[in-house]
Structures are given as structure tokens and as C-alpha cells.
Amino acid sequence: MSILLKTPTEVMKELGLKVRAKRLSQNLSQSGMASRSGVSLGSLKRFESTGQISLESLLKIAMSLNCMRDFETVFNENTTTHSLFQAKTQMKTRCRGSLK
Which CATH number does the domain housing residue 51 bear? Predict the structure, then answer.
């Protein structure tokens, strides 16, 4: 399923599962990953099961898994999206009220 059709919660859970798979592919335990990244073991466990984590901790995990390049395209102005919502909002011109 496309990421555009998922809820934020679904995307978060999927991201947690992807990090878990990446961690396991590098033969790291959760405690080893926590130690390597500087993220608490509890935060890492919660992230892998629910997807909930702070941005700072997510970046620390990405850095320890050599995945920081994955963030280069987030919010990039040159990235093309096919979001219906974005296409609709781009068509509207922002107008402010006046005091006339």
C-alpha cells in the first residue's frame, strides 16, 4: 500500500518494524542498539513496537544504522509528490483579509 494511503500511526508502526529489521540484519540486539545509538532501551523497545519516538532519537538510530541519507529527501522542495491533497492546496491562492 502506498504511503499516501496510510495513516500517520500506520506509517510510524511500519517505520518501527523497518528499523527492527535493519537492526537484526546488522546482528544487533536491542540493548546493543540502544548503547550504540545513545537512545534508551525503553525508547527503542517502544519505537519498535508502536512507532513512537522523538525526532532526535530517530536521528540517532538512523545515524547508528548508517541510514542518515534517507533523510535527505524529507521536505525537499525538489521532491515530486503525487498527493491529491498537495495538488489541491497548490491550486488555491492564499488570500488575507483587508481592513477596507
Answer: 1.10.260.40
